[in-house]
Design brief:
The protein is about 80% helix and about 0% strand. It contains 5 helices and no strands. The radius of gyration is 17 Å and the shape is elongated.
Length: about 140
């Protein structure tokens, strides 16, 4: 068996799942912000958001980190003297921080304490796209 290829595939799959959730959860927040607190719609959003974060996004983030670190340290496919690797690392850490921000917003919605507008959530929905672009360009182009 080609364990390197399997690990790389698992890394890519987990990153895709993490990114999908990172793009979808703030979109749910956009609609949830406009729903009346305590309404059936609001309660439905709470369930959807919690399941997305806990069942898909967080396991996918953990898997992305584990498979990525396995590729870097076990298979030694990364040259840590290369600037692109450090750029990727910084932006993956930023993406992880964004994940934490979404978790805080989810907690606020769960407690009916959200104070952010739908417009705010539309704006932060662009953050993972920018982070992803930098990460992909760094890995594929290796600009430095």
């Amino acid at each position: 068996m080609n364990w390197y290829a399997i690990t790389l595939a698992a890394h890519v799959i987990s990153v895709i799942a993490w990114m999908a959730g990172s793009l979808y959860l703030p979109r749910l927040f956009v609609y949830h912000a406009d729903a009346a607190k305590g309404s059936e719609t609001s309660e439905t959003f709470k369930v959807m958001e919690r399941r997305l974060l806990r069942a898909i996004m967080t396991p996918a983030m953990i898997a992305s980190w584990l498979f990525g670190l396995t590729l870097a340290f076990h298979f030694k496919v990364v040259d840590f003297s290369a600037g692109w690797m450090w750029l990727k690392a910084v932006f993956v850490i930023l993406l992880s921080g964004y994940h934490g921000l979404l978790a805080r917003h989810l907690k606020a919605f769960a407690q009916d304490r959200n104070t952010k507008s739908a417009r705010y959530f539309r704006a932060i929905n662009e953050i993972p796209t920018v982070l992803m672009i930098v990460i992909v360009v760094a890995v594929i182009v290796k600009p430095f």
